[in-house]
Write a structure and sequence with these properties.
Number of strands: 0
Structural class: mainly alpha
Strand content: under 5%
Radius of gyration: 24 Å
CATH architecture of the domain at 3-245 and 273-416: Up-down Bundle
Order of helices and strands: HHHHHHHHHHHHHHHHHHHHHHHHH
CATH superfamily of the domain at 3-245 and 273-416: Sodium/glucose cotransporter
CATH topology of the domain at 3-245 and 273-416: Sodium/glucose cotransporter
Number of helices: 25
C-alpha cells in the first residue's frame, strides 16, 4: 500500500477517535445520553447512522459472493435477514416500539407484562437473547475485517491479529462517546462509503463493456425471475461454482424463496431484535420520527448496491484466473478485497479502504453500544447496583463494552466462515425469537411466562440445533426451531394466569397495537368511552406490500445500471416513482404521534 493511502487511513482513524474524545463529556451525563443520545438526535441522522451500521464489511463481502454466484437473482437472497423488515418497521412496528418510551428491549417488557415474576423472567430472556445476538454479530464482523485487512495492510500479521487491533481502536471512541459518538462517526463513515461506492461503480462502468460481462456469465445470470429450479449452469465458465450452489442448498430456488418470504414476514411482524435497530427506534424523538427514521434507511442503503454490483462485475471479468486456481475450494469472501487491490489507484485506494474500514466500524460500534446498554440497564442497575450514580452506570458501560468485545473475539478465533455465521443468525437464532415476539404484539392472553419459556426454548434449541441435527441445513432449521418456540409459548401462557388487568389496559392504551385484543379493548372503553380502537391493520399491511416493492425497486436500480440492463432499470425507476407516491399518500401523510 502506498504511503498516501496509509496516511488517509491513519487520518480517518485519528478523526473518529478525536470525535469520541470531544463527545465524551456530553455522552457521560447519564444513561439516556450515553445509550440513546438523550433522545435528541434528528430522525434523519439516526436513519443514516442505521444505514451505515448495515453497510458492514462482512455483509458486503457476503453479498458480493451471492451476486457473483447467482447474478441478479442474488438480490433476493438478502431477504433471508430479512432486509424488508425495515418496511414493517417504518409502517407501524417502530411507532409501537417508540411509544413505550424506555431504554432497552428488556425494559420494554415491563410495559407489556408488568412487574411480576413472569415479567422478570421475560426481561432476563430478552437480555440473554440480546447478549447472544451481539456476540454473534461481533463474531461475524471479526471474521470479515480480518479477511479483508490481511490483503491490504503492509505488515505481515494474521487476519485474527488485524481484527483484534481494529476492534480495539474502534472500541476507544465507542467507550468515550456512547451513542453521540456512534451517530456522528456513522455520519462521517456514511459519507466515505458513498464516495467509495461511486468510485467502484465508475471503475466498473469504464473498465467492463456489456459484451465482456455477458461473455463471463451463464444464461439466466442477468434475469431477476426464476422457476422451480435455479436454472444456472456454470459448467462452461467456472465449473466449481456449481459446487458452491449445491453446498448452499439453493438449487430448488422456489422452495428457498418461499421459505425466506414466509420467514421474513414472520420475523418482521415480531419486531426488531434487541440490537442496534431497536436502539435507534427508542432513541428517536417521537413515534412518528421512529417511523421516518426507518424509511430513510431504505434510501440511504442504495450506495451499497452500487459498490457490490461494481465489485461483482470486475471480479467476473478480471478475477476469473484467481478463482479457477482455487479449484473446488473457492473462497468467494475474498473477491471484494482482491478486486479492490487490483483495480483501485493510489490515493483513491486509501479513501476507499477508509470507507470500508468505516463500514466495519459503523456495524461494530452500534453493536457494542447496544449490547452494553442491556448489560448495564437490565443486569447491573437492576440487580447489582439499583441505587448507583450516573457516573457508575456509564463506567459500567465501559466495562460491559470491553467484555462483549473480548467474548466476540474469542468466538471469532474459531474456524468459521461469514456465510455460516450469517445463516446461524438469520435462521437459527431468529427462529427462536420469532414466535414469542409476534404473540406479544398481537394476542392479549400471551403472558410473561409464555414469553420467557418460548424465548429460552428457542435460544437453547438454536444454539444446540446443529449438534442435535447435524444433517439439517440452517435454512431448514428455522421452521423447526420456531415451531418448538411457538408451541412452548402458547402452552406456557395457557397453563399460567393472564397478566394483571391494569398492565394490559395500560399497554393497550399506550401502544395501541392491532390484533386479538377485544377483551382488553372492552375494559378500556368502560373507563374511556372516547378511546379509538386501532383499525388500521389492513392499511398497514397494504403499505407494507407497497413498501416491499418500493425497497426492492430502489435496490435494483443501481444493480441494473452497473449490469447494463437499462430497460430493466427503467422499469425499476417507474416502480420506485409509483410506490413512492402511494406511500406518500397512504403512509407519510397519515403518520401520527400519539
Amino acid at each position: 500500500m502506498h504511503l498516501l493511502d496509509q496516511s488517509i487511513i491513519l487520518g480517518y482513524i485519528v478523526l473518529v477517535v478525536v470525535a469520541g474524545v470531544l463527545l465524551s463529556r456530553r455522552a457521560s451525563k447519564n444513561m439516556d445520553s450515553y445509550f440513546l443520545g438523550g433522545k435528541t438526535v434528528p430522525w434523519y441522522l439516526l436513519g443514516i447512522s442505521n444505514a451505515s451500521s448495515m453497510f458492514d464489511i462482512s455483509g458486503t463481502m457476503w453479498i458480493v459472493a451471492m451476486l457473483f454466484v447467482y447474478g441478479v437473482k442474488g438480490a433476493w437472497i438478502p431477504w433471508m435477514w430479512p432486509t424488508f423488515n425495515q418496511v414493517f418497521f417504518m409502517v407501524y412496528i417502530a411507532i409501537w416500539v417508540r411509544r413505550s418510551n424506555v431504554l432497552t428491549g428488556a425494559e420494554w417488557i415491563q410495559t407489556r407484562f408488568g412487574k411480576g415474576r413472569g415479567s422478570e423472567l421475560s426481561s432476563l430472556s430478552v437480555t440473554l437473547f440480546a447478549i447472544v445476538s451481539v456476540i454473534g454479530l461481533l463474531t461475524y464482523t471479526f471474521i470479515g475485517i480480518g479477511k479483508f485487512a490481511v490483503i491490504f495492510f503492509p505488515w505481515d500479521l494474521s487476519p485474527n491479529t488485524y481484527a483484534v487491533i481494529l476492534m480495539a481502536i474502534t472500541l476507544v471512541y465507542v467507550l468515550l462517546g456512547g451513542m453521540y459518538s456512534v451517530v456522528l462517526t456513522d455520519l462521517i463513515q456514511f459519507i466515505l462509503l458513498c464516495i467509495a461506492s461511486l468510485i467502484i461503480g465508475y471503475i466498473s462502468l469504464t473498465s467492463v463493456s456489456p459484451g465482456m460481462l455477458r461473455s463471463a456469465v451463464p444464461d439466466g445470470w442477468l434475469d431477476l425471475s426464476f422457476g422451480w429450479n435455479l436454472g444456472l449452469d456454470w459448467s462452461g465458465h467456472i465449473p466449481a461454482v456449481n459446487d458452491q450452489i449445491a453446498a448452499d442448498g439453493y438449487s430448488l430456488f422456489m422452495v428457498f424463496f418461499i421459505m425466506i418470504v414466509l420467514k421474513g414476514i414472520l420475523n418482521s411482524m415480531a419486531g426488531p431484535v434487541p440490537t442496534y435497530d431497536m436502539q435507534r427506534m427508542l432513541a428517536a424523538k417521537t413515534p412518528r420520527e421512529a417511523g421516518l427514521m426507518n424509511g430513510i434507511v431504505s434510501v440511504a442503503i442504495i450506495p451499497r448496491w452500487i459498490m457490490v454490483s461494481g465489485v461483482t462485475v470486475l471480479a467476473l471479468v478480471y478475477f476469473r484466473p484467481e478463482i479457477q486456481e482455487m479449484g473446488t475450494n473457492i473462497d468467494f469472501e475474498q473477491v471484494l478485497p482482491h478486486v479492490i487491490n487490483k483495480f483501485v489507484p493510489t490515493g483513491v485506494m486509501g479513501l476507499l479502504l477508509a470507507g470500508l474500514l468505516a463500514a466495519f466500524m459503523s456495524t461494530f460500534d452500534s453493536t457494542v453500544n447496544c449490547g452494553a446498554a442491556y448489560i448495564v440497564n437490565d443486569i447491573y442497575r437492576k440487580y447489582i447496583n439499583p441505587k448507583g450514580t450516573d457516573g457508575q452506570y456509564v463506567r459500567a458501560g465501559y466495562f460491559a463494552s470491553i467484555l462483549l468485545v473480548a467474548i466476540g473475539i474469542l468466538f471469532g478465533l474459531r474456524p468459521n466462515t461469514i456465510n455460516s455465521i450469517t445463516e446461524w443468525i438469520v435462521f437459527g437464532l431468529a427462529g427462536g425469537y420469532t414466535a414469542p415476539n409476534i404473540l406479544r404484539w398481537h394476542w392479549w392472553r400471551f403472558n410473561g411466562y409464555g414469553y420467557f419459556f418460548g424465548m429460552m426454548s428457542g435460544v437453547v434449541f438454536a444454539i444446540t440445533f446443529s449438534r442435535i441435527f447435524p444433517e439439517v441445513s440452517a435454512v431448514n432449521s428455522f421452521p423447526l426451531i420456531m415451531g418448538v418456540s411457538a408451541t412452548v409459548s402458547i402452552l406456557a401462557s395457557l397453563w399460567t394466569k393472564p397478566d394483571d388487568e391494569e398492565t394490559l389496559v395500560r399497554f393497550y392504551k399506550q401502544v395501541r397495537p392491532w390484533g386479538f385484543w377485544d377483551p382488553v379493548y372492552r375494559k378500556v372503553v368502560l373507563d374511556d368511552p372516547g378511546f379509538m380502537k386501532n383499525t388500521q391493520a389492513a392499511r398497514d399491511l397494504f403499505n407494507v406490500l407497497i413498501g416491499v416493492i418500493w425497497k426492492l425497486s430502489l435496490r435494483l436500480i443501481p444493480l441494473f445500471l452497473i449490469f447494463y440492463e437499462f430497460i430493466s432499470m427503467a422499469v425499476a425507476i417507474a416502480l420506485a416513482i409509483l410506490t413512492t407516491g402511494l406511500l406518500k399518500v397512504n403512509w407519510y401523510d397519515k403518520l401520527e404521534d400519539h
